[in-house]
Amino acid sequence: STQFRPQPRPGVMEIDAYVPGKSHAPQGVAKVHKLSANENPLGPSPHAVEAARAVAANLQLYPDGAATRLREALAARHGLNVANIMIFNGSDEALALLARAYVGEGEEGIYSAHGFLAYPIYIRAVGATPVAAKETDERSDVDSILAAVTDRTRIVYLTNPNNPTGTYLPFEEIRRLHAGLPKNVLLVIDAAYAEFVRRNDYEAGVELVAGNENVVMTRTFSKAYGLGGARIGWIYAPSHIIDALERIRDPFNVNAVAIAAGVAALDDRDHVERSVSHNEHWLRWTSEELEKLGLRVTPSVTNFILIHFPQDERYSAAAADAYLAARGYLLRRVSAYGFPNALRMSIGTEEANRGVVAALAEFLKA
Ligand code: PMP
């Protein structure tokens, strides 16, 4: 009987654990191109690597628990208030702690139906109910989010640009969402892919955080900065929210290597610029080439593309995924995100992008 052993709290066993993108090719594949986790194909800034190495010589020392250098560097870089910045072990940690601080048992959290799958995990982990708002044309839909609000709603997660669709909601729409939400509901704008959006109206997001008590923006070093392995995320938030999160975070949630790498990466503006330009070029090229093959792709402003496959079983996403993996190209299945017949492809190196297009051309001819 299971009666005499510790029982997880209600809801925990209903959670589907997060499944990351593939990182291994089938046996015998010589060269692997990992295009399943939206990582930077140019790698991290060499300065960040150097800084991480330098810190590694003194790993007996605890990190600065307040990550002050990194918060100051971010404040200077983005023209923000240091006091409104907080650093996390990846933006995942921020997203989780926001649920832990603001959502309780019997309450609800809303996210977009085709949104990042970590949100329902964080909502369930605090004993609350995740509510998926439907989308229109593969885009988050402000009206359906607002329609999902009840008096039990405590948090709304909105990814912008969205993963896995790569779509973007103009800030006017986010303002409209915010205006329609009750004041006691926390609006979390997850801007993990912000750096790739050239039209940058993220200033408006900053304004929305600064001018209100219930808006938080989350950012990460995992994508454009190429530091996914270092786990560095941050938020820009009103002081009262920082105050709450400071009380529940782990004492040293951000490690010393991450802090040093983050500071150096921020300083290397050329590397980010190169990364964003590389992405821009290959995003356009790859999208166009895939369309020439007759595949529908969701127009993306990010560093990944959602590729839709024909209804024909021979040419399904599952078949394409296996075909590509056998040739070393690892893409992401997105069935769990509500796209059973699509694959998400991160923009890779020139070699990887050309390779995927060539392989898919063969696959579709076969
Ligand atoms: N939000 C979104 C939308 C993401 O795609 C990711 C990366 N999978 C994250 C947050 C988490 O990023 P990290 O924890 O590496 O900062």
How would you characterize the overall build of this protein?
There is one protein chain. By secondary structure, the chain is an alpha/beta fold. It has two domains: 19-43 and 270-365, Alpha-Beta Complex (Aspartate Aminotransferase, domain 1), CATH 3.90.1150; 46-267, 3-Layer(aba) Sandwich (Aspartate Aminotransferase, domain 2), CATH 3.40.640.10. Helices cover 38% and strands 17% of the residues. The strands form four sheets. The protein has a seven-stranded mixed β-sheet with strand order 2-10-9-8-7-3-4, with helices on both faces. The longest helix is centred in the C-terminal third of the chain and has 24 residues, at 269-292.
Helices and strands, with pairings:
Layout: E1 33-34, H1 46-56, H2 68-78, E2 85-88, H3 91-102, E3 108-112, H4 118-125, E4 129-133, E5 135-136, E6 139-140, H5 142-148, E7 153-159, H6 171-180, E8 186-190, H7 202-210, E9 215-220, E10 233-236, H8 239-248, H9 256-267, H10 269-292, E11 296-298, E12 304-308, H11 317-326, E13 329-330, E14 332-334, E15 339-346, H12 350-365
Parallel strand pairs: 1-13, 3-4, 3-7, 7-8, 8-9
Antiparallel strand pairs: 2-10, 5-6, 9-10, 11-12, 12-15, 14-15
The protein binds 4'-deoxy-4'-aminopyridoxal-5'-phosphate (PMP).
4'-deoxy-4'-aminopyridoxal-5'-phosphate is lined by residues 90-92, 116, 159, 163, 190, 192, 220, 222, 228, 233.
